[in-house]
């Protein structure tokens, strides 16, 4: 399964209702509240997120198996638990696109 989830876009402008992700030191908005499913990301200067991810937009896909869906992709950030409780990982495709793969709890294989 691969279903479109959102588009992530970097900003330097504080957004309404953004929340802080301590692990990556980035402020994020809830893409589910945006009419076009946009997630705004505002990075702290000391964020450990690589420049490749900071300086590019990404397309996020809801998947039921990150390991399977990420085969053949270059890892930018390995899977980790997000503030919303999903497991997410960031990858680069063979043609240079940045993708986020998201496993929602209810989709995970046991």
List the helices and strands and how they pair.
Layout: E1 2-10, E2 19-21, E3 26-28, E4 38-43, H1 51-54, E5 58-63, H2 66-69, E6 74-81, E7 87-92, E8 98-103
Parallel strand pairs: 1-4, 5-8
Antiparallel strand pairs: 1-5, 2-3, 3-4, 6-7, 7-8
Residue stretches low in confidence (pLDDT < 50, at least 5 long) are none
Strand runs, count: 8
- Name the CATH homologous superfamily: 2,3-Dihydroxybiphenyl 1,2-Dioxygenase, domain 1
Proportion of residues in helical segments: under 10%
CATH architecture descriptor name? Roll
- Largest sheet, order of strands side by side? 2-3-4-1-5-8-7-6
CATH fold-level topology? 2,3-Dihydroxybiphenyl 1,2-Dioxygenase, domain 1
Descriptive account of the structure:
- The protein is mainly beta and 110 residues long.
- It has one domain (2-107): 2,3-Dihydroxybiphenyl 1,2-Dioxygenase, domain 1.
- It is built from two helices and eight strands, in the order ββββαβαβββ.
- The chain has helices at 51-54, 66-69, and strands at 2-10, 19-21, 26-28, 38-43, 58-63, 74-81, 87-92, 98-103.
- An eight-stranded mixed β-sheet has the order 2-3-4-1-5-8-7-6.
- A hairpin with a 5-residue loop joins strand 7 and strand 8.
- The longest helix has 4 residues, at 51-54.
- It is globular, with a radius of gyration of 13 Å.
- The protein starts with a strand and ends in a 7-residue tail after the last strand.
- The relative contact order is 0.22.
- The model has no long low-confidence stretch (mean pLDDT 92).
């Amino acid at each position: 399964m691969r279903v479109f989830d959102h588009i992530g876009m970097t900003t330097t402008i504080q957004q309404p209702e953004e929340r802080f992700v301590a692990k990556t030191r980035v402020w994020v908005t809830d893409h589910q509240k945006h009419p076009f499913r946009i997630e705004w990301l505002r990075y702290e200067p000391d964020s450990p997120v690589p420049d490749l991810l900071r300086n590019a937009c990404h397309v996020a896909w809801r998947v039921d198996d990150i390991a399977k869906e990420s085969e053949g992709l270059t890892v930018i950030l390995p899977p980790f638990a997000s503030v919303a409780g999903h497991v997410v990982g960031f990858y680069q495709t063979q043609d240079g696109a940045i993708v986020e793969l998201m496993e929602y709890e209810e989709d995970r294989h046991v």
